[in-house]
Each structure stands twice: as structure tokens, then as C-alpha cells.
């Protein structure tokens, strides 16, 4: 393995924390004897092209510095290769890093952990989801939660998490369950009225909402959480339990497991790792051991 590490940096992550985080992470890696190269890019497409070039050239690891969106972009370069992937999590949600047990908003600690893990060979294969040629690490979301994302992304004010809290309140006032058709890899088809359907490779999204609490990054299967035809009152009552993962005990919630799933519904957008994928229908498959992750 080469001693050069590539830092893949989002300078705008976490309201500017991405740019500030790169320096202490790089310092920790250099102190451990690694050479560090930084990739920024003029935009997402340019940054991804540069990251792919670094992987092709044999970088010792590709380390994303930012949030879940930056991790998602980095995975497009490193998934399906044997190049180790690391994460310096300084974004808003950081769900992938939390699922992996990595430090959050402590770039120096993350840099030290990555350096130690690379030296000690602590690199583990982890599953990823794939929709077409696009990889995702945590959750493919659709329904109420994706409509909150749609609305929040259209809002210019306020910024940060408050924007999505307000978007959620606005969607609650107007939302109705929609007809879904869910097709699993065993041929089972379910047609349901659902508030949301979440396809989980990882357990959480949205900064700690454990929508798929039983999801395991190493079992080759998705956990698919289906929240049925809830009223607004029921949704408000159940919502806080999502942070504990106990919502799956509610009678309106069903959990399915499959390596492949297609979800279909009209006028619903799918989001993976918080990034828009496009309108449903979408077909996802869980790829076992798709990426080698540096970590505990």
C-alpha cells in the first residue's frame, strides 16, 4: 500500500467546517508518516473526476472530509475497488460515520484513527446499496421524508436544520399517504398505502433518526421500513420514537428484508444519503462487501 493518502474535501460542509477540518486531519496523518494530497474540485463533477483519478493512480486511501453528501460522492469513486475509504465527519447529519463508529466533528481524532487503522490493517468490507450505477451507504428514503427534503431544498431561508424542521411542519399540514408498490427479490409484491418507505443499508438518516434500526452493514440485506397509512396525529406521536428506533414496534410499521427491492409510487422522489436520486420507481440492490472501510 502506498503511503500517500488522498483527502477529498467539501469546503462548505457544516457551514464551512469542511475546509477547517482538513488541516487537523492532514496534520494527524502526516504525523503518522503518511503523505497527504488534497482534492477539492471546481464542482461535484470535477471533484469526483479527481477522486477517481487518485484511486486509479493507487492512492493508499480516499478519505472524505465533510458530511454524508461528501461521503456519498466519495463512494462513487471508491466503491467496487480495493482502495480503503475513510471518513472525517464534519457535516450536519454524519449518519454513515456514526454507523461505522467513527469520530464526529473531531477531525484530529478521526485523522489519528485512520492513520492507526491503516498501519494496523483495520480495514473492513462493508455493504453498500446501489441504484443503477449510483452507490449509497445509509438509507434510500421516499415518501413523507423525501417530500420534506424536496420542500427544504426549495427554501432559501432559514438555513441548517431549522429549514427542514419548518419544511416538516409544512408537509404535515398537507401530507396524505400514497399508494406504493413494493417488489422484493423473492417475487413478493406488496401494494400498500404508505406514509413513507425507507430502504436501509445503514440504520439512520437525518442526523440520528434510526429509521431502520435493525439494519446491518455486513449482512448483504436491506432492512425496508414501511410506515403505513398514518394520520397526522399518529405521525406526530410516533415521530419522536424514530430517534430510539422503537417506532418499528408500532402496528402501522412493517419491516421487510431483502437483497433487492423496487419501490414505486407516483409523484415521489427518492433520496439516498440525503442526495436526490430522481422520481420513483427505483430499484435498489444491496452489494455485499462493496467498499473497504478504515475504522474500528
TrEMBL record:
Q: Which PANTHER family match?
A: LIPID KINASE YEGS, SPHINGOSINE KINASE
**What keywords does the record list, in alphabetical order?**
ATP-binding, Kinase, Lipid biosynthesis, Lipid metabolism, Magnesium, Metal-binding, Nucleotide-binding, Phospholipid biosynthesis, Phospholipid metabolism, Transferase
Q: Does the keyword Heme apply?
A: no
Q: Which cofactor does it need?
A: Mg(2+)
Query: Under which main EC class is this enzyme filed?
Result: transferase
Q: What is its EC number?
A: 2.7.1.107
The protein's name: Diacylglycerol kinase
Q: Which SMART domains match?
A: DAGKc
Amino acid at each position: 500500500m502506498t503511503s500517500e493518502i488522498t483527502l477529498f474535501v467539501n469546503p462548505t460542509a457544516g457551514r464551512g467546517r469542511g475546509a477547517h477540518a482538513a488541516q487537523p486531519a492532514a496534520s494527524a496523518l502526516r504525523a503518522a508518516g503518511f503523505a497527504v494530497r488534497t482534492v477539492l474540485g471546481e464542482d461535484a463533477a470535477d471533484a469526483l473526476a479527481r477522486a477517481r483519478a487518485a484511486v486509479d493512480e493507487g492512492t493508499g486511501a480516499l478519505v472524505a472530509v465533510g458530511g454524508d453528501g461528501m461521503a456519498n460522492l466519495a463512494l462513487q469513486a471508491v466503491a467496487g475497488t480495493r482502495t480503503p475509504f475513510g471518513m472525517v465527519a464534519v457535516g450536519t447529519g454524519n449518519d454513515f460515520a456514526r454507523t461505522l463508529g467513527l469520530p464526529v466533528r473531531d477531525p484530529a481524532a478521526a485523522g489519528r484513527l485512520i492513520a492507526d487503522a491503516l498501519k494496523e490493517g483495520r480495514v473492513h468490507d462493508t455493504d453498500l446499496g446501489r441504484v443503477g450505477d449510483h452507490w449509497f451507504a445509509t438509507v434510500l428514503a421516499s415518501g413523507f421524508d423525501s417530500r420534506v427534503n424536496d420542500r427544504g431544498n426549495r427554501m432559501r431561508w432559514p438555513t441548517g436544520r431549522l429549514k427542514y424542521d419548518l419544511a416538516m411542519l409544512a408537509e404535515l399540514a398537507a401530507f396524505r399517504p400514497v399508494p406504493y408498490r413494493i417488489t422484493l427479490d423473492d417475487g413478493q409484491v406488496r401494494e400498500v398505502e404508505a406514509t413513507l418507505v425507507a430502504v436501509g443499508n445503514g440504520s439512520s438518516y437525518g442526523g440520528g433518526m434510526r429509521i431502520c434500526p435493525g439494519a446491518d452493514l455486513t449482512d448483504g440485506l436491506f432492512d425496508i421500513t414501511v410506515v403505513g397509512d398514518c394520520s397526522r396525529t399518529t405521525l406526530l406521536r410516533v415521530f419522536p420514537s424514530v430517534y430510539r428506533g422503537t417506532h418499528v414496534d408500532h402496528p402501522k410499521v412493517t419491516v421487510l428484508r431483502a437483497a433487492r427491492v423496487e419501490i414505486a409510487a407516483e409523484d415521489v422522489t427518492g433520496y439516498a444519503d440525503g442526495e436526490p436520486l430522481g422520481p420513483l420507481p427505483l430499484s435498489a440492490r444491496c452489494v455485499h462487501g462493496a467498499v473497504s472501510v478504515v475504522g474500528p
